[in-house]
Amino acid sequence: MRIVLQRVLSASVDIAGLRKSTIDNGMLILVGICDDDTDDDIEYLCQKIVKLRIFDDSEGVMNLPITEVPGSGILVVSQFTLMASSRKGNRPSYIRASRPEFAVPMYQKFVERLEALFGRPIQTGTFGADMQVTLVNDGPVTLILDSHLRDQF
Prior knowledge:
- This protein starts with a strand and ends in a 7-residue tail after the last strand.
- By secondary structure, the chain is α/β, with parallel strands linked by helices.
- The chain has two helices and eight strands.
- The strands form two sheets. Strands 1, 2, 3, 6, 7 and 8 form a six-stranded mixed β-sheet that branches. The protein has a two-stranded antiparallel sheet with strand order 4-5.
- It is globular and about 45 Å long.
């Protein structure tokens, strides 16, 4: 499982011109799922997300996890293109991205576990939909986490 996490001042998802979800300050998390992902991958990433100290404390130092930031939110959006390989040629291959039969339940488990650890409702996009994601990146702070490359990130 691979995620791109962005600290944001705001983020939203529109589908067919209608606003689906929105948050003010917090995290926008893009999630890619592959067939060898397990519940252990979900647990690792969700624990990491809620413990990352990427928000400013009273001294202006990135020292707080999202759980200690009042009014913060999390927006999770599925994005199969995170599993793309561009090693050969110019057309990315998405062969590593899971099919919906596997990916949808994993995505739902991810959102449910993250929500339990965060202690507040999580906003989401719609799995498989053509979404327009808007964000104001704060910092900018952008991190890539891959549960299969734990020692490298």
